[in-house]
């Protein structure tokens, strides 16, 4: 049978004790005990003139623990517990380590030997004390977290992308915040997480760790409330070491005000889109090639589409209900003029000024990031030339940086051009006035994506029955906007805000007559009514 290998622990705290309580005496006493047990002493760990207040970081302690973990020793003999450590926390920690490694602690003065049944009981008591202390510490920490959170103090972890902790204050990160803002703008424009991630990557932006953006990252950051000025704290808890975190009950969450990156309306709009996508379990596909495709629905509940390039009607595949598409298109064009008259150009100048400022911040961040990457690339070149970095290692680190720099170089002129163009627009009052007046007449000249974006955003529902059409346009704040590249976009968005009404008319299946009915109904809006009932519609239909 193989003999048990043990170590001898010798610690005296002062020079006087070194002389008075000879380390050799302690060692000899331990050797006698080991011999009586027919064990083998393979190591001696000496800590001369070392205080017992803390010993865990001492090189001899670390050497002893390595020997325990590697199995070089399976027991440690010492004269008494006070010689092992006087710090209760460290004593419990050592006992826990030895128990985990199935090793024994032997104290000669207290006559404790954990290789015996009595010693096992000691281990049990020690473990219980350690568990109690850990739980007590955990409880104290947990109790302090909500208090620290309500005080706005850090409760652990780094700030979300776009933020940082600076001198114990949660502040905007000047390099990341413009990118986070751009993420919301791109998503409002395309309504697709993967497209947003790809666009950010193409522009040369990366996450804090230097990785490319993914749809998962975009989803997490879009949902994070810090962007709208609310930092959540004390809302998660750990389920154990190396395990996932789970949410606490909402009544334990703490909301702390913080600097906002986007307006609350923008955040709410993005999250409404995300929730709609989650609830439908379907991601948005490509935009429909017809203006109202997927928006107009039959009274039976089924969507109506224009089937085929030659068709002029929206049809329901279920009940075969249909309506002429030109009649519906005419509604949107004719109503724009009713709301253009109240639009004030100075509103758009203020919007444009804000957008220029945001673009300038993004340009500055982009250029700083590029310069930092170029510096890192130069450092890699020096390492390869002077320190002999291997070609494989060099390529693995240099090429990704080179790709990102090229992407940033492509995005910088684009940003500069956008800023220059918007500044020219803002300085041209004639352009602003003419732009307001021409939106109605230029509706037919707008790109399909612009028309579709306006229509999709402002329309609450369009329901076509056998004899009626019910069209509801939703109210939208001015801050709900896509990425603006010209004043026309701003104008169309203010128009969205003005449209907030519901119209119900009785249908005549001739397109010209239907258009006439809609036009006749429009003046009723001037009286402040939220619902329009055409003169030709019945009282029962209108509910009056």
UniProtKB/TrEMBL annotation:
One of its GO terms (molecular function) is DNA binding. This is Site-specific DNA recombinase. Residues 160-280 form the Recombinase domain. Gene3D superfamilies: Putative Large Serine Recombinase, Chain B, Domain 2, Resolvase, N-terminal catalytic domain. Residues 5-152 form the Resolvase/invertase-type recombinase catalytic domain. SMART domains: Resolvase. PANTHER family: DNA RECOMBINASE-RELATED (PTHR30461:SF23), DNA-INVERTASE FROM LAMBDOID PROPHAGE (PTHR30461). It comes from the Bacteria.
């Amino acid at each position: 049978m193989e003999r048990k290998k043990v170590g001898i622990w010798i610690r005296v705290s002062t020079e006087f004790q070194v002389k008075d309580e000879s380390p050799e005496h302690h060692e000899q006493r331990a050797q006698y005990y080991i011999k009586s047990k027919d064990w083998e002493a393979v190591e001696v760990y000496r800590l001369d003139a070392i205080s017992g207040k803390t010993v865990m970081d001492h090189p001899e302690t670390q050497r002893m623990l390595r020997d325990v973990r590697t199995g070089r020793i399976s027991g440690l003999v010492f004269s008494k517990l006070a010689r092992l450590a006087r710090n209760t926390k460290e004593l419990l920690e050592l006992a826990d380590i030895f128990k985990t490694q199935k090793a024994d602690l032997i104290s000669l003065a207290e006559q404790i030997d954990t290789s015996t049944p009595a010693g096992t009981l000691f281990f049990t008591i020690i473990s219980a004390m350690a568990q109690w202390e850990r739980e007590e510490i955990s409880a104290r920490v947990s109790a302090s977290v909500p208090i620290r959170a309500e005080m706005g103090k850090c409760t652990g972890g780094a700030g979300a992308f776009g933020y940082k902790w600076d001198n114990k204050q949660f502040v905007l990160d000047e390099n990341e915040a413009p990118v986070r803002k751009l993420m919301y703008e791109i998503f409002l424009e395309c309504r697709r997480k993967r497209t947003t991630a790809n666009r950010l990557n193409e522009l040369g932006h990366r996450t804090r760790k230097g990785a490319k953006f993914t749809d998962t990252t975009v989803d997490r950051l879009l949902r994070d409330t810090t962007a709208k000025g609310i930092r959540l704290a004390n809302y998660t808890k750990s389920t154990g070491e190396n395990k996932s975190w789970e949410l606490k009950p909402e009544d334990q969450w703490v909301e702390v005000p913080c600097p906002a990156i986007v307006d609350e309306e923008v955040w709410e709009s993005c999250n409404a889109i995300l929730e709609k996508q989650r609830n439908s379990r379907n991601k948005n596909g490509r935009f429909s090639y017809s203006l109202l495709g997927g928006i107009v629905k039959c009274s039976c509940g089924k969507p109506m589409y224009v089937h085929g390039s030659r068709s002029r009607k929206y049809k329901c595949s279920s009940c075969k209900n249909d309506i002429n598409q030109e009649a519906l298109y005419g509604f949107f064009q004719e109503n724009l003029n009713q709301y253009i008259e109240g639009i004030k150009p100075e509103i758009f100048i203020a919007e444009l000024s804000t957008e220029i400022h945001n673009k300038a911040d993004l340009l500055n961040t982009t250029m700083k990031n590029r310069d930092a990457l170029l510096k890192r690339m130069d450092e890699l070149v020096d390492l390869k030339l002077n320190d002999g970095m291997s070609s494989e290692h060099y390529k693995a680190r240099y090429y990704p940086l080179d790709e990102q720099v090229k992407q940033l170089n492509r995005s910088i002129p684009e940003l500069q051009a956008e800023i220059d163009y918007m500044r020219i627009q803002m300085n041209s009052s004639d352009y602003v006035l003419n732009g307001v007046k021409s939106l109605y007449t230029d509706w037919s000249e707008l790109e399909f994506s612009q028309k579709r974006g306006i229509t999709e955003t402002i329309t609450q529902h369009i329901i076509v029955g056998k004899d009626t059409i019910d069209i509801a346009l939703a109210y939208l704040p001015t801050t709900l906007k896509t990425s603006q590249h010209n004043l026309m976009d701003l104008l169309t968005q203010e128009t969205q805000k003005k449209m907030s009404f519901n119209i119900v008319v009785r249908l005549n299946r001739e397109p010209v007559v239907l258009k006439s009915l809609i036009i006749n109904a429009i003046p009723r809006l001037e009286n402040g009514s939220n619902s329009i009932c055409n003169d030709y519609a019945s009282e029962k239909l209108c509910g009056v």
